[in-house]
Amino acid sequence: MNIPENLLYSRDHLWIQQADDGSWLAGITDYAQDLLGDIVYVEAPAVDSVLVAGNPCGLVESVKTGSDLHAPVSGTVIAINKTLQGNPEFINDAPYKTWIFKLVATNEADTSTLLSAADYATLLNAS
């Protein structure tokens, strides 16, 4: 299982990475995309949406099932990856290069509740 060291992970199988401008990119993990199978639709949160950590904020659908996206941290969505509207399978091809939404965190301390790569691996092994 691919779990890059430079990302932070939620227990709901989302990753975040801080961008150069201080905002955060968010996507689903390799583990999540593998469980879902072939992704056919992504519903990202709307730009300017206010997210609350842990609350549903979007949806990923595959040929098998649908799965809610849960906000990894609280904040405001400033962009969505519009490429996914026509090419949701990009998540299957490159889950850690294919972000779903970009947000500005309300409270940077929220990131301290996220998991390191090692902690995320431990979570997966306990499943």
Question: How is this structure best described in words?
Answer:
This protein has a six-stranded antiparallel beta sheet with strand order 1-2-3-9-8-5. Strands 4-6-7 form a three-stranded antiparallel beta sheet. It is built from four helices and nine strands, in the order E-E-E-H-E-E-E-E-E-H-H-E-H. The chain is globular, with a radius of gyration of 13 Å. It has a single domain (8-107), classed as OB fold (Dihydrolipoamide Acetyltransferase, E2P). It has helices at residues 30-36, 83-86, 90-93, 117-126; strands at residues 8-9, 14-18, 24-28, 39-43, 50-51, 56-62, 66-70, 75-80, 101-105. Strand 1 (8-9) and strand 2 form a beta hairpin. It is an alpha+beta fold and 127 residues long.
Class inferred from helices and paired strands: alpha+beta
- CATH fold-level label: OB fold (Dihydrolipoamide Acetyltransferase, E2P)
Number of strands: 9
Average of per-residue pLDDT values: 96
The proportion of strand residues reads: 25-35%
State the helix count.
Answer: 4
Per the principal axes of the C-alpha atoms, what is the gross shape? globular
- Stretches where pLDDT falls below 50 for ≥5 residues? none
Question: CATH class, please?
Answer: Mainly Beta
- Count structural domains: 1
CATH superfamily: RNA polymerase II/Efflux pump adaptor protein, barrel-sandwich hybrid domain
Order of helices and strands: EEEHEEEEEHHEH
Gap between N and C termini: 14 Å
CATH architecture: Beta Barrel
Helicity, in percent?
10-25%
Largest sheet: 6 strands, antiparallel
Widest sheet, order of strands: 1-2-3-9-8-5
Radius of gyration equals 13 Å
